[in-house]
């Protein structure tokens, strides 16, 4: 499988990349984000929200697990960190099969509920302002999205 990587050098650059990604998405798409605390998962989500035309400020849903925003498409922003040691299903399939875009922080904690077709993005801290983003598309749709996004 080909590797798709991008490096960003500021928060704004990550937001702009995510904003461009949002324009390539279609209803029902699922994006999963991996990376340590402070890597930039929520920052990336802010960019996706901006690209979808969400007006409200996006912040971490750690304590609510899911937050829903309205843009050109609905955006379902999930942070499932608190589900690490449980296999609680909080109705994921409703979101993943819905018309909105789902974006999931710490998605590895809910592996059993994820759809086969999805775009995983691993974000790694390289330096205070530098992040490595590794894109792993599953399925033809996301393969072409990633090619379009970063070649
Ligand atoms: P996470 O959701 O992964 O815990 P956040 O997005 O909440 O991470 O935090 C990322 C932090 O890193 C923010 O304070 C952001 O300003 C900072 N940052 C610095 N450089 C970058 C970059 N290139 N991309 C994303 N965030 C960056
Ligand atoms: Mg976060």
Automatic annotation (TrEMBL):
- What's in the keyword line of the UniProt record? ATP-binding, Cytoplasm, Magnesium, Metal-binding, Nucleotide-binding, tRNA processing
Chief subcellular location:
cytoplasm
| UniProt GO MF annotations | ATP binding; metal ion binding
Which SUPFAM superfamilies would you find in this protein's record?
A: P-loop containing nucleoside triphosphate hydrolases
Query: Which domain of life does this protein belong to?
Result: Bacteria
**One Gene Ontology cellular component:** cytoplasm
Protein name per Swiss-Prot or TrEMBL: tRNA threonylcarbamoyladenosine biosynthesis protein TsaE
Species, as recorded: Lentibacillus populi
